[in-house]
């Protein structure tokens, strides 16, 4: 079963890379790192079932090997891959945000079967950067293994109003959730979103 889902994920990756963005420098074609970066898409439709713990451990190891300010590793990471625990977190968030439709709270997780919650240390000004780099390592290493992801800012607004949900996640005192990453095996192949290269200039 595990082998089958890995085969499907690999097939999915091949189809996904068929609709990759490409870099203009043809000497980079065939470079697996660049192809991995350029083919990644945010995934919002997943096959059933969480990512295996073995694969997640590899992905998380890649995450914590991201560059980070003074090697303070100013992040904490919590992974929820049990649907019952995820339901508990969503219920605590919905109860604390009772002005919002509960469906909206659940929906903001995009149905991803494995959810990563990342908290930053607000006493360190570079902590949001550390968490961003950690997140990118997680998403790109996941993609290289056939695991899709979506970076999620919207749950954070609900989560940071819900101290009981934060407590259930078990973050240390002083750490504040800053981003979530939904992960799972892709069940869609979105087109690349356009990028504005005009925002990047060499200073002459
Ligand atoms: C900080 C941040 C917050 C995001 N929040 C959400 C979100 O709440 N919901 C969602 O569906 N996508 C979210 N995204 C994903 C973006 O919409 C997506 O990365 C962007 O449209 C580019 O598409 P791509 O990732 O497929 O290249 C977020 C991405 C980032 C970096």
SSE inventory with pairings:
Elements (H helix, E strand, L loop, with lengths): L1 H17 L13 H8 L13 H12 L10 E6 L2 H14 L5 H6 L6 E7 L6 H18 L3 E5 L1 H6 L3 H7 L6 E9 L20
Antiparallel strand pairs: 1-2, 2-4, 3-4
Helix pairs in contact: 3-6, 4-8
This protein binds flavin mononucleotide (FMN).
Could you please describe the fold and organization of this structure?
By secondary structure, this protein is an alpha+beta fold. The protein has one domain: NADH Oxidase. It is 43% helix and 13% strand. Strands 1-2-4-3 form a 4-stranded antiparallel β-sheet. α4 packs antiparallel against α8. The N terminus is likely disordered. The structure holds flavin mononucleotide. Flavin mononucleotide binds next to β3.
Count of all domains: 1
Strand neighbour order, sheet with most strands: 1-2-4-3
What would the CATH topology be?
NADH Oxidase
Backbone structural class: alpha+beta
> How big is the Rg?
18 Å
Shape type: globular
Largest sheet, if any? Answer: 4 strands, antiparallel
Number of helices: 8
Total E-strand runs: 4
The percentage helix is 40-55%
User: Could you name the CATH class?
Assistant: Alpha Beta
Order of helices and strands: HHHEHHEHEHHE
Q: Give the end-to-end Cα distance, rounded to a whole number of Å.
A: 56 Å
SS strand fraction: 5-15%
List low-confidence stretches.
1-12, 14-19
Question: TL;DR?
Answer:
By secondary structure, the protein is α+β, with helices and mostly antiparallel strands. The chain has one domain (42-190): NADH Oxidase (3-Layer(aba) Sandwich).
């Amino acid at each position: 079963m595990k082998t089958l889902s890995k085969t499907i994920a690999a097939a999915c990756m091949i189809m996904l890379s068929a609709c990759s963005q490409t870099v203009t420098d043809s000497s980079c074609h065939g470079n697996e790192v660049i192809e991995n970066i350029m083919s990644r898409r945010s995934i919002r439709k997943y096959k059933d079932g969480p990512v295996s713990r073995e694969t997640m451990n590899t992905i998380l190891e890649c995450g914590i090997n991201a560059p980070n300010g003074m090697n303070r590793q100013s992040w904490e990471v919590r992974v929820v891959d049990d649907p019952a625990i995820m339901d508990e977190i969503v219920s605590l968030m919905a109860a604390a945000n009772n002005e919002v439709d509960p469906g909206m709270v659940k929906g903001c997780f995009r149905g991803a079967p494995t959810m990563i919650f990342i908290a930053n240390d607000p006493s360190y000004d570079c902590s949001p950067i550390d968490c961003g780099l950690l997140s990118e390592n997680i998403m790109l290493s996941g993609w290289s293994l056939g695991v899709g992801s979506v970076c999620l800012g919207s749950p954070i607004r609900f989560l940071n109003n819900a101290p009981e949900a934060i407590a259930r996640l078990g973050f240390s005192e002083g750490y504040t959730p800053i981003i979530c990453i939904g992960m799972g095996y892709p069940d869609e192949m979105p087109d690349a979103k356009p990028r504005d290269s005009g925002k990047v200039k060499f200073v002459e």
